[in-house]
Amino acid sequence: MTLTPLAALDDVLHRALAEDAPWGDVTSEVLLPADARAEAFLVAREAGTLSGAAAFARTFALLDPSVDVTLHRADGDRFEAGDVLAAVAGDARAVLRGERVALNLVQRLSGVATLTARYVAAVAGTGARVVDTRKTTPGLRVLERQAVRDGGGHNHRFSLSDAVLAKDNHLAVLAARGVGVGDAIRAARERLPHTTRIEVEVDRLDQVEEVVAAGVDTIMLDNFSLADLRAGVALVAGRALVEASGGITLDTVADVAATGVDVISVGALTHGVRALDLGLDMDVSEGARGVPGAGAGR
């Protein structure tokens, strides 16, 4: 599994922590003694798939390296309601300062991983690959893409710099200038490195042959009916990968996969996700280390 680079993770966390406490945590600094200690437990309120464990732990490490974070689950692990996913122990001010940022990230990323796992389970056995899109939260793409992988899904191109993906608006500009899509693709191929892939989106069956004949690597069938997806797969006949996209839901993804497409892109994996219900329960009682107790957060 490809993991999020530490530098990219730290960049997200530094910005999030600065946003949440630009001049410190006034409440904790005026109420809590400097030597106060605390222990907290990351507890699942509902079942799901974990993602963001590294972000959760790293949040506290950046605030105070002496804070001890013990992870009881790894990214990609399934868990049930009531499971203790992690324990945090150390300086109370650091624990409370990092609480919201750590929770926000692990809740959202676990929501992405959990939803992705449901889509992946729905297409099991079909050979179709569930992938994300660029419909990510600005600034969180690197983490949300990791969450998709934690849920068993795959990633589409990371950015506009990674591959050619000619969509309807690109084709409209070309058409207005009298340039055929086939000619444009062949010209682009001559200018690109051999490692750069070309994908083209079409929204009608009569566009398929010209695009595939021009030598694309992937053809995206956008908002096609199930019957047209099957017809499109037959027309392509293995000459390119076939991607289905547009309005695909958990209720429809299995039927889409059954048409024979290779890839199913689902923007909802990241842009329509609900944060999972996870809580950070505080326990300040003596001798309670390692087990959630009846402290302030319980």
CATH topology of the largest domain: TIM Barrel
* Main β-sheet, spatial strand arrangement: 6-11-10-9-8-7
First-last Cα distance? 35 Å
Low-confidence region ranges: 287-291, 293-298
Family: Belongs to the NadC/ModD family.
EC number: 2.4.2.19
Function: Involved in the catabolism of quinolinic acid (QA).
GO molecular function: nicotinate-nucleotide diphosphorylase (carboxylating) activity
How would you describe this protein?
- There is one protein chain.
- The chain is of the alpha/beta class and 298 residues long.
- It has two domains: 124 residues, Quinolinate phosphoribosyl transferase, N-terminal domain (Aldehyde Oxidoreductase, domain 3, Alpha-Beta Complex), CATH 3.90.1170.20; 148 residues, Aldolase class I (TIM Barrel).
- Helix content is 40%, strand content 18%.
- The chain is built from eleven helices and twelve strands.
- Strands 6-11-10-9-8-7 form a six-stranded parallel sheet.
- The longest helix has 31 residues.
- The protein is elongated, with a radius of gyration of 23 Å.
- The C terminus is likely disordered.
Which short descriptors sum up this protein?
298 residues, alpha/beta, Aldehyde Oxidoreductase, domain 3, TIM Barrel, 2 domains, 6-stranded parallel β-sheet, 4-stranded antiparallel β-sheet, 11 helices, 18% strand, disordered C terminus
